[in-house]
Amino acid sequence: MQFDDDADLDTSEVQDVRGGRIPGGRATIGGGLAGLVALVLGLLFGVGPDQLGLTSGGDEPGATASSLAQVQQTCLKGRDANAQADCRTVAVVNSVQAYWAREFARRGGTYTRAPTVVFGGRVNTGCGTATSSGGPFYCPVDRKVYLDLGFFDDLRTKFGSGDGPFAQAYVVAHEYGHHVQNLMGTLTRSQDGVTGANSNSVKVELQADCYAGVWARNATTTPSPSTGRPLLTALTDTDIRDGLDAAAAVGDDRIQARYQGRVTPETWTHGSAGQRQRWFYQGFTSGDMAQCNTFR
Fold first, then answer.
1. Domain that holds residue 282
2. What residues pair up with 229 in beta bridges, in sequence order?
3. HSE of 88, CA atoms in CB hemisphere, 13 A
4. What letter does residue 88 receive in the DSSP assignment?
5. How many Å apart are CA 45 and CA 282, to the nearest integer?
6. Which of 6, 7, 11, 229 has the most CB atoms around its CB within 10 Å?
7. Residue 120's pLDDT band (boundaries 50, 70, 90)?
8. 118: helix, coil or strand?
9. What contacts 181, CB < 8 A, 6 or more positions away?
10. Is residue 119 a part of any domain in this protein?
11. Would you state the pLDDT for residue 49?
12. Average pLDDT of span 234-255
């Protein structure tokens, strides 16, 4: 994947709190078995730490901004995104949100932008206190995506995904798929407490995968506000294979087989490797969010 070297990046859409002090409270998970379970479940791309047992049990202030503010200082142009992983996150967030703002407007709606919070270790959110072991997630309460960039190393080393840059883009686009669902009122369908291969929880996750594919199809034709040209200028077959590989790596069946030695479809919350690949590819080949009705 390649970004327009001369495009300006909008760093206001990414809040870098790495190195910030986290006031008050503590997460309820720790090391040992509980930490491993949270890691496995979190890496399935949950929609909030409250669903993973990560809530602190009280209202707490958010993290103070890092004095380093690395993203705001170094991620200025598309060429920075082509060279640095954290700047790539900024560019993907910009591209994803530019697409959905345009798509909502085309459909007569209004898209409300959501920031991504880049953190390290632990962070306070509208959904409670979360740790890096929980993986990336979207919090519908404060409408923010939370991401520890170290997750992408885990995706490769712990779950066997490839390390192509589009694997990172897929993760970000999936979480923004949850934000789209939140705006459209479909995200709450996952909160009925039911699990299983045909549960609403799985259908919500697969729809977010499909929305990630829809963005990927349209990303290279969505103009950047700063130049009027697409921010993402090239997306190759290899990139899409990387996205499909990442989707498969976090399938319920793959993770269960790897960490518990057996597959139990009745406990699935996110879908199998095949389902996640299929719905991402459905979104990519159609380029149409109307083709992402996983509830049908």
1. 2-291
2. none
3. 18
4. H
5. 19
6. 7
7. confident
8. strand
9. 187, 204, 207, 208, 211
10. yes
11. 47
12. 92
On whether the CB atoms of residues 207 and 292 are closer than 8 A, the answer is: yes
Residue 296 placed within a domain: no
User: Which residues have a Cβ under 8 Å from the Cβ of 210 and sit 6 or more positions away?
Assistant: 177, 279, 280, 282, 283, 289, 291, 292, 294
Measure Cα distances from 70 to 23, 134, 171 in Å: 21, 23, 21
Residue 36 lies in a domain: yes
Closest CA to 50 of 179, 165, 146: 146
**Structural tokens at position 170:** 């897929």
Closest by CA to 223, choosing from 71, 88, 85, 101, is: 101
- The residues pairing with 39 across neighbouring beta strands, listed in sequence order, are none
pLDDT digits (tens, 9 = 90+) for 78-117: 999 999 988 999 999 999 999 999 999 999 999 999 999 9
Percentage of residues of the chain with pLDDT beyond 90: 61
Amino acid letter, residue 118: V
Within 10 Å of residue 214's Cβ, how many Cβ atoms? 28
Instruction: Domain count for the chain, please give it.
Output: 1
Answer whether residue 135 shows pLDDT above 90: no
Does the pLDDT value for residue 68 go beyond 80? no
pTM for the full predicted model:
0.85
